[in-house]
Design a protein that fits this description.
Number of helices: 5
Largest sheet: 6 strands, parallel
Helix content: 25-40%
Order of helices and strands: EHEHEHEEEEHEH
Low-confidence stretches: 103-111
Radius of gyration: 15 Å
Length: 174
């Protein structure tokens, strides 16, 4: 698939800088990239991403790319984009947790159920495992196994190739 815009979603509790040089590397190869910097969590993370994307007016189709704990938020982010009439063309999980009905517990707040549209995923999904430095090698084994069981393409990033290249190759097969 050829995306209109890649939306790089960092894990809650991190910031857009956690993507390192990836956004600029992708932009230098002609890809439209939005990397929202979001401080909120749960429903507020989803709402903030929606506001940022509304202001950015990204070209469709969007490919939502989640890192780490942003993975479970993708269905909610997608729901917001669909409500705004922006088509989501694909999802990529980068060393990310997969969505499933779950609850988040915030400090001083009640359990919060994340939105999960009944037809999710309505677009192709893929999983990119980067084996990043400092990452526990077994941490994402279950997510990779589950992605394969769902029939999603899984790419194991192998240096010295750039993560941008591995990500682009995975998106191309969605």
């Amino acid at each position: 698939m050829t995306p209109g815009t890649l939306v790089l979603l960092h894990a809650p509790g991190a910031d857009a800088k956690s993507w390192g040089e990836l956004p600029e590397t992708l932009r230098s190869s002609g890809v439209d990239v939005v990397a929202p910097d979001v401080r909120e969590t749960g429903h507020r993370y989803i709402a903030r991403v929606s506001l940022i994307l509304a202001a950015a007016d990204p070209a469709a189709p969007l490919v939502l790319v989640a890192h780490g704990a942003a993975g479970p938020l993708l269905p909610g982010v997608a729901l917001g984009q669909r409500a705004a009439h922006r088509r989501v063309g694909g999802y990529v999980f980068v060393d990310a947790d997969l969505p499933r009905p779950m609850h988040l517990r915030g400090e001083g707040s009640p359990d919060e159920e994340l939105p999960m549209p009944p037809d999710w995923p309505e677009a192709p999904c893929g999983y990119l495992r980067t084996h990043a430095d400092g990452d526990d090698p077994s941490r994402h084994d279950e997510a990779v196994r589950e992605a394969r069981l769902r029939g999603w393409p899984v790419t194991e990033h192998e240096p010295p190739a750039s993560v941008a290249r591995s990500l682009s190759e995975l998106i191309a097969v969605l």
